[in-house]
Automatic annotation (TrEMBL):
One of its GO terms (biological process) is response to reactive oxygen species. The keyword Nucleus does not apply. Coiled coil: none annotated. Pfam families: peroxidase (PF00141). Residues 151-189 are annotated as: Disordered. The keyword Mitochondrion does not apply. This is Plant heme peroxidase family profile domain-containing protein. The lineage of its organism: Eukaryota, Sar, Stramenopiles, Ochrophyta, Bacillariophyta. Residues 120-164 form the Plant heme peroxidase family profile domain. Keywords: Heme, Iron, Metal-binding, Oxidoreductase, Peroxidase. Belongs to the peroxidase family. One of its GO terms (molecular function) is metal ion binding.
Length: 307
């Protein structure tokens, strides 16, 4: 898959995995401090879930939708007013925002980790699940920092509209109504530069790549153990590599693969194109991706020391 395209771009793979909305607040944050032993235990549980369910893509999306709400223009306000990787996505209303369709199921998969290691914050669990999803899919090891403090109530949720649009709305604009007005633009590239949300019921119900048939894993083996459905950006959507950057701008690729306006603009915009072309080299992509992922995972976070 294409867990890649990171930070500047639209992302990755397909298989939209889960759809049940969460209507009640989940358990509040623990006030316990976190130890390295807790983090190690949580990681080992998360690795087990990833290996069994091949749910890396939805964990990456969960983590980035928690952190990507961070509004820099509010960064000087008291924490957690500017949003970010603070675990607020677990609460209604944030989990029910249009952009978060399908993510309640991902949180549910991670609840046993919180139960087993209550000292580890949800914010850390979400970010850890994403970083491990990347690593186990063949991507780079990300230099993660843990000890995030959790938002404790629905009042600390970000407003709807702080994540980017893949396609323009009916008025021909990306962002705007339903999103953060300050990121509104007729151009996908400028909207991406400004950042905000909307990625509901995106793509086809299923494709030949996500219909339950075998798909490739990072070790070269194949699996059918995944939640079928959705549209991928690349054929081997459970493998983390740079294939997004060799697929989107290649007109001869399979027509069932997703190519959003926000994807294609990366090769059309003079500012983005040098990076889109550079990342046709996998080493260059991994190096930049690891740094971008780390930065994204810490947006708006407040850390306490790990004991
Ligand atoms: C910046 C603009 C971005 C746009 C416009 C965008 C758009 C989308 C859309 C429309 C989907 C399909 C959601 C659905 O199935 O309903 C999606 C899925 C996904 N996105 Fe993004 N995205 C962006 C950034 C990112 C970033 C930065 C990451 C990773 C750090 C990311 C990771 C993913 C993953 C892993 C999926 C697949 C989830 C799954 O298969 O369950 N996206 N994105």
């Amino acid at each position: 898959m294409k867990l890649s395209a990171a930070i500047t771009v639209a992302a990755v793979s397909g298989a939209q995995a889960f759809t049940a909305p969460v209507n009640k607040p989940l358990r509040p944050a623990s006030s316990l401090s976190v130890t390295q032993g807790d983090l190690d235990g949580a990681q080992s549980m998360i690795d087990g879930i990833l290996t069994e369910k091949n749910c890396g893509p939805v964990f990456v999306r969960l983590a980035w939708h928690d952190s990507g709400t961070h509004d820099v223009s509010l960064a000087d306000k008291e924490w957690p007013a500017s949003g970010g990787a603070i675990g607020s996505i677990r609460f209604d209303p944030e989990i029910n925002h249009g952009a978060n369709a399908g993510l309640a199921g991902a949180i549910k998969l991670l609840e046993p980790v919180k139960e087993a290691f209550p000292g580890v914050s949800y914010a850390d669990i979400f970010q850890m699940a994403s970083a491990r999803g990347i690593a186990l899919a063949g991507g780079p090891e990300i230099d993660m920092k843990y000890g995030r403090v959790d938002a404790t109530s629905p009042e600390e949720c970000s407003p709807e509209g702080n994540l980017p649009d893949a396609e323009a709305g009916p008025e021909g604009k990306f962002g705007g109504p339903g999103g953060t007005a300050s990121t509104e633009d007729e151009s996908a590239a400028w909207h991406l530069r400004k950042p905000t949300p909307t990625e509901v019921e995106f793509g086809a119900e299923k494709t030949k790549f996500t219909d339950g048939s075998a798909t490739k894993l990072a070790d070269g083996s194949e699996t059918t153990a995944y939640t079928a459905g959705g549209s991928p950006w690349v054929e081997d959507w459970l493998v983390f590599n740079n294939s997004y950057f060799t697929t989107i701008n290649d007109a001869s690729t399979d027509e069932e693969l997703v190519k959003c306006t926000s994807d294609k603009c990366l090769w059309e915009d003079a500012g983005f194109a040098p990076y889109a072309n550079k990342f046709a080299d996998q080493e260059a992509f991994f190096e930049s991706y690891a740094k971008a992922h780390k930065a994204l995972s810490e947006l708006g976070s407040k850390f306490e020391p790990v004991e």
